[in-house]
Write a structure and sequence with these properties.
about 160 residues, alpha+beta, Metal Binding Protein, Guanine Nucleotide Exchange Factor, Chain A, six-stranded antiparallel beta sheet, three-stranded antiparallel beta sheet, globular
Length: about 160
Amino acid sequence: MKRRNLFTLLAAAGLASRSRAAGSTTSSIGRLDLPDEEWRKRLSPEQYRVLRHEATEPRQSSPLNHEKRRGTFVCAGCELPLFDSAMKYESGTGWPSFFDVLPGAVGTKRDWSLIIPRTEYHCARCEGHQGHVFGDGPAPTGLRYCNNGVALRFEAAA
């Protein structure tokens, strides 16, 4: 990795940690705590790996990448609304990306799994892993919520 790329990654991680996302860990949403065997019954194997064990789906694998209709993206684990479709944009990363979240919908934590610190975000209700937030998104927030499509379900507007 070139030094310039490393500094860009570190700067993006720092921006994300100072963003609104870092402050969104508090929520008045009731928690959903289920035993592991219940999560296994409720979710597909891929959803289980992503939502419960912080795996990442392959890039370009989600049909939600191409979803353009009006509606709401909800957590695949508990159906909590996370994103309005107006928040979605094409980031070119291969995963559904959003520049903002619905109020109180996600919590965050620091992720060191790739050595370089990142900000992981998860559903505020079931704590299902959704993805990571970066400081390289569009206006008005400058954020990119890079989401695993398998962790979401789309509900079209009526």
